[in-house]
Design a protein that fits this description.
Strand order of the largest sheet: 1-4-5-7-8-9-10-11
Number of domains: 1
Strand content: over 45%
Number of helices: 2
Radius of gyration: 22 Å
Distance between the termini: 63 Å
CATH class: Mainly Beta
Structural class: mainly beta
Largest sheet: 8 strands, antiparallel, barrel
CATH architecture: Beta Barrel
CATH topology: Lipocalin
Shape: elongated
CATH superfamily: Lipid/polyisoprenoid-binding, YceI-like
Length: 200
């Protein structure tokens, strides 16, 4: 009888003291205030570009990194480097081969908190159907949304250094990194709000 009572009390105690974690928040990207850009080099000179079209499924909470994830799809044909010749070349088979691989994908399902609002996203980046593991360091600020007092706004900034040839971007003569550099610095500047954006 005593052992049964003790067992019941133990179950109640463990249940009552079980940690309660907030479910990760779903965020919607405010595309008007977000930018997915990059910096590369051609003939030794830097040039900047960006992708105007991308979608993001973001479920993230600093209090529940274990169940957070980020899934971003990028429309390759939306590339813009402010050069008509370059923009017409990049979707071709030697580069992104957009007719066969129209999307790039960034899928992160592991996060590490580094302190002071800094995190690492451990992800797989897929381009030209080649997936490679990457680590994106980013800074996160969560604050009240000035346009909606009853919700939060998240501001994310980060940089990811890539080597284009790892994904086979630049085939044939363009595999040589003399004319177009191998290193590409991707810059992420995202603003997202809680839930869905409706009539903002």
């Amino acid at each position: 009888m005593i052992s049964r009572a003790f067992g019941a009390a133990l179950i109640v105690f463990c249940t009552a003291n079980r940690p309660v974690f907030a479910e990760p928040t779903r965020w919607s990207v405010d595309l008007a205030h977000s930018r997915l850009g990059f910096v590369a080099t051609q003939a030794g000179a830097e040039f900047a570009g960006q992708f105007h079209k991308f979608s993001a499924d973001i479920v993230f909470s600093p209090d529940d990194l274990e169940h957070s994830h980020i899934d971003v799809e990028i429309d390759i044909l939306s590339v813009d480097t402010q050069s008509r010749d370059r923009d017409s070349m990049l979707p071709n088979a030697d580069w992104f081969h957009a007719s066969v691989f129209p999307k790039a994908r960034f899928l992160a399902d592991r996060f590490v908190a580094k302190g002071d609002g800094n995190y690492e996203a451990h992800a797989t980046l897929t381009m030209r159907d080649i997936g490679r593991d990457v680590v994106l360091p980013f800074n996160l600020i969560i604050e009240d949304d000035p346009s909606h007092s009853d919700r939060k706004r998240a501001i994310v900034s980060g940089q990811l250094v890539l080597l284009r040839t790892v994904w086979g971007i630049g085939q044939g003569e363009w595999a040589n990194t003399g004319a177009v550099g191998d290193k590409v610095v991707v810059t992420i500047e995202l603003t997202a709000v809680q839930g869905a954006i409706q009539g903002d």
